[in-house]
Amino acid sequence: MSIADLLWRFPSVQMAWRNLGRNRVRTALATLGIVIGVVAIASLGMAGVAIQQQATSDLGGIADEVTIRSGVDSTTDGVTDEQVDRIRDVAGTAAVVPEKSNSTTLTARDGRETFVTVTGITQASTLYEVSTGDNPDRLQSGALLSNDTAQRLGLELGDPVEYDGQLYRIRGLIESGGGGFGGGNELVLPLSALDEDEHYDSVTIVAADGDEAQRIADAIETRFNEGDEEILSVTSFASIQENVGSFLNTLNLALIGIGSISLVVASVAILNVMLMSTIERRGEIGVLRAVGIRRGEVLRMILAEAAFLGVIGGVVGAALSLGVGLAAFEVLVGDATLVFGWASIRYLILGFGFAVVASVLSGLYPAWKAANDPPVEALRG
What we know:
Blueprint: H1 3-8, H2 11-22, H3 24-63, E1 65-70, H4 81-91, E2 95-107, E3 113-120, H5 124-127, E4 130-133, E5 143-146, H6 147-153, E6 160-163, E7 166-174, E8 186-189, E9 202-206, H7 210-224, E10 232-236, H8 238-280, H9 282-290, H10 295-332, H11 342-371, H12 375-380
Parallel strand pairs: 3-8, 5-7
Antiparallel strand pairs: 1-9, 1-10, 2-3, 2-9, 4-7, 5-8, 6-7
């Protein structure tokens, strides 16, 4: 069934469709304004979602972590074993990883040297991901070395590295960016390698998500620090992710507001087009009224014309916006198919709906004016 056959069942709608085809240039220009408005709203909305997802992905690795160090009011130069046990009581099922740290210089076979930070840790697999080799749940022997450092010094798996007079075989290479802020020039050794340090330099808690991390951080603050006293310094990155998300939401709303301006301008253009059209067809409408066509039919005809402009502009604008969204997600997130998620696809629906509603509203006054024009006055011109 063709569009003409479908419209035959609704005479006023059929006349509206035919009227749009009588002046195709004016119809195309009015539709172009709607297309631009929909593209502005939907594209900016989807680009904002892509930016937000990329930011969330970048912060996701640290948002669920809490870092604890000795505070300015502590009587020890680090976190004690007794404090670690109390932290475990507060953390519940979250992983608690005490760490000791130092620094040293590694030397390659050809004499090249590189300064690295040394981390003593047992639960290495909780904080680090390796690109090559073994990543034991409990690091009791051997070493993990950052990939960039190994390449710079020409070291491979099984090669020995020396720290404090002891040799450790490289068991795995740490991916760049692994271990929260680590992953640069870093050597990870068993905790026993830094036995000369009595206390831990830091304790990292890895929670299930950012909300749990914030809850644990608040509980530790309450348990160890009273008033302005700071026995332990507690740092949670969950609030950073929350603040970034809030900022991006605000930015997204501002961008959509800017895009909506173009659709409002397009609505004014449609109002002008419909007014001009009804004035030009005043005599024709007068004849229709004279032969018995009711005001409601004239009203529906003009509103249908406005709705057609909104639907056509909305569909074309949504299709173009989808292309823009695919490109934005491919560039920013690396996966174009994520554009079909509800968070981004809703902006296509919003843009289309806004286009149809704005077009119909723009056609209300011309439709009312044409429907209430006395037939005799209309025939006189």
